[in-house]
Structures are given as structure tokens and as C-alpha cells.
Design a protein that fits this description.
The protein has six helices and two strands. The protein has 159 residues and is mainly α. It has two domains: 94 residues, Winged helix-like DNA-binding domain superfamily/Winged helix DNA-binding domain (Arc Repressor Mutant, subunit A), CATH 1.10.10; 35 residues.
């Protein structure tokens, strides 16, 4: 991975390096096992953590999947005790999805293992590099969250 000497790198270059970093994160995080859930099931847990009480169709939309496939993911997550389905207050035919206490504990433990793997790498970086990385990641998170929020609003308007 080469870093551009240009103080104002182009988005294309930053996207390439960010993609490479994400791939390396996947390798590091792969060592912090996600068992007993798959990567797809883990995405369900992350979505439910931030969207308690959504229905299956909304979850499927958030995952870019179909309701039948999403339902099967939820079946398996419910079987291991990570997801709860509850009748909706507004419609008895509709079910709302919630992350269970067991699911929350799993995510907390997973994050701790992932952060431990990251700390060993970050400890090898010079302090100025860590400071720059932190500032860049904070800006990236803010921009990504805004983009996700905008995409969600445009989807809601067209639905």
C-alpha cells in the first residue's frame, strides 16, 4: 500500500486504499471468530441493533435481500437465541424483530475481540499516524452515516 504525497488526494485513490484497509480488517477480524453466525447473519444483528422493532420487509430492504431469504436468516438467529420476533402493536399479522439480550452480549464480545486485534496493529503505528487515522475515520463515519440516512429517506419517499 503506497500513500500519495499529494496533500489533497483524489477520492479514487482514497477509495482504493480504504478498500485495501477494509480487506485487511476482514482478515484481522476473521481471526476473531463470528461463530455461531455467518457474515450475513451478523449484518442482520447490526441492523437490528440500530433499528429495534422493524419488520421483515424493512430488514430485507436494509440488507438488499428478499423477505424469504431474510426470514430464513432470522429463523436461524432466533434458533440460537440472538433475535426475538414479537407481534406488532399496530397489526397482529405483522411481526417486529428485536435483538435479544443474548444477541447484544454476543455483539459486545465480538467487538471486544475485534478491538483487541486492532489494538495490536494500532500499537505498531506512530502516534501521529494514529491521530491522523482517527481524524480521517471520524470524518468518514460522519459522511457515511449522512449518506446512509439520505439513501434511507429517498427509499422511504419512493416506497
Amino acid at each position: 500500500m503506497t500513500i500519495s504525497p499529494d496533500p489533497r488526494p483524489q477520492p479514487t485513490e482514497v477509495a482504493r486504499v480504504t478498500s485495501e484497509a477494509a480487506e485487511l480488517l476482514e482478515v484481522l477480524w476473521g481471526r476473531a471468530s463470528t461463530a455461531p453466525v455467518s457474515a450475513s447473519q451478523l449484518r442482520v444483528l447490526f441492523v437490528l441493533e440500530h433499528n429495534e422493532g422493524i419488520n421483515l420487509r424493512t430488514l430485507a430492504d436494509a440488507l438488499g435481500s428478499t423477505p424469504p431469504s431474510t426470514s430464513r436468516l432470522c429463523d436461524r438467529l432466533q434458533a440460537v437465541g440472538f433475535v426475538e420476533r414479537r407481534p406488532a402493536v399496530t397489526s397482529r399479522r405483522e411481526l417486529e424483530l428485536y435483538l435479544s439480550r443474548h444477541g447484544r452480549v454476543f455483539l459486545t464480545d465480538l467487538r471486544a475481540r475485534r478491538e483487541s486485534a486492532l489494538e495490536s496493529v494500532l500499537g505498531q503505528m506512530p502516534p501521529a499516524g494514529r491521530t491522523a487515522l482517527l481524524a480521517g475515520l471520524e470524518a468518514f463515519c460522519a459522511a457515511a452515516a449522512a449518506r446512509i440516512h439520505e439513501d434511507g429517506e429517498s427509499t422511504a419517499r419512493t416506497a
